[in-house]
Amino acid sequence: MLSLEAVAWTPRLWNVVVFLTISLHLSSGTPTEKHQKVDVRYCLNISKDLLNEVKESLRHPDVTGGFNCTDNVIVLEDFTQNHTSTVWTCSPVQESGRCEKSGDSHGCRFSPEQCYQNITADLQIYQAMLQDFIRITGKVCKHIQDLLKALNSDSTYEEAYVDGGSTTEDEEIHTIEFPQRMVLCNILQAFKLRTITINRVMNYLNETQL
């Protein structure tokens, strides 16, 4: 049986592992992703499927077992903080106080290219974290991969997805213990919110065809 101390500290240790994983993946990619013409409608369809798979994964017994994994119970962590600014760069109307104070109207213009770059980075970050739970998140990772390809990203980390799938089921059953379920719950809930944002952005871009 896990002690209260183990339950309290193990997720924090996992956060360290997650951070190192993110750093390794981001450092191995290109500094600036380049995107050719993007089929926005196709991306929108994939992002809808991705959101559905994330919601489905949140109902998996290895995620929900032993505690209430809902976004109004757990304290969500922004895993992309200091790495991306998707909400800012993908906002169609950027008339916030930051724009007004800076006086830089050019820097406040909506840029689909910058938006795609930030979405790509978001997807890569979550893809890297979800690899450790591939038996549960396999379909989610597959849809992430599909969306990265649809965004014409120069770096999709397909190798990481393939390698992650090589973990045996027995090994994963052994690793999905209560502290790790808490970690996975937090990751999936945070990714659900980011995927909702991506869906809204893709829907806006599809309607306006920017």
TrEMBL record:
<feature type="signal peptide">
    <location>
        <begin position="1"/>
        <end position="29"/>
    </location>
</feature>
<protein>
    <recommendedName>
        <fullName>Interleukin-12 subunit alpha</fullName>
    </recommendedName>
</protein>
<dbReference type="InterPro" id="IPR009079">
    <property type="entry name" value="4_helix_cytokine-like_core"/>
</dbReference>
<dbReference type="GO" id="GO:0008083">
    <property type="term" value="F:growth factor activity"/>
</dbReference>
<keyword id="KW-0964">Secreted</keyword>
<keyword id="KW-0202">Cytokine</keyword>
<dbReference type="GO" id="GO:0005615">
    <property type="term" value="C:extracellular space"/>
</dbReference>
<dbReference type="GO" id="GO:0005143">
    <property type="term" value="F:interleukin-12 receptor binding"/>
</dbReference>
<dbReference type="GO" id="GO:0005125">
    <property type="term" value="F:cytokine activity"/>
</dbReference>
<keyword id="KW-1015">Disulfide bond</keyword>
<comment type="subunit">
    <text>Heterodimer with IL12B; disulfide-linked. The heterodimer is known as interleukin IL-12.</text>
</comment>
<dbReference type="Pfam" id="PF03039">
    <property type="entry name" value="IL12"/>
</dbReference>
<comment type="similarity">
    <text>Belongs to the IL-6 superfamily.</text>
</comment>
<keyword id="KW-0339">Growth factor</keyword>
<keyword id="KW-0732">Signal</keyword>
<dbReference type="GO" id="GO:0006955">
    <property type="term" value="P:immune response"/>
</dbReference>
<dbReference type="InterPro" id="IPR004281">
    <property type="entry name" value="IL-12_alpha"/>
</dbReference>
